[in-house]
Design a protein that fits this description.
Distance between the termini: 19 Å
Strand order of the largest sheet: 2-1-5
Number of domains: 1
Strand content: 25-35%
Order of helices and strands: EEHEEEHEH
Helix content: 25-40%
Number of strands: 6
Largest sheet: 3 strands, antiparallel
Length: 108
Amino acid sequence: MGMIYYGGSTAPIQMEDRALAQLKVVISTKLRRGEAFTLSWRHAAEEPDGRSTIWLHPSIPLRFVFEHPDPTELDRAWIEELATSANSSSGIVLVTEHLTEDRVASLV
C-alpha cells in the first residue's frame, strides 16, 4: 500500500502502488507547470464513510511513498484519463476502479 503525505499532516492518504504511480505522474506534471487543482477520493472500507478532497498547490509539501521498491508499470491511457480529470472543474476524482486490484488484473 502506497501513501501520499500532504502538507503538514502526519496522516497519510493510502492507496495501492499502481494507482499511486499513475497519480504521481499527473500530479508532478501539473505542479511542475505551476497549476493547482483538487484530488478527491472515497474513504476506504476500514475508514468512516465519506469522501475527502485536497487542494494540490506547488507551494504545499508533498511526498509519495511506495510499498514496493521496484517501479510499477505505467499505463498511458490511465494517465491520460487522470490528466483529463485534473484539467476539469472537479479535479482528479479517484473512482473505485483506480483503487482496486481489479484494474491491475484487467491491464496486465
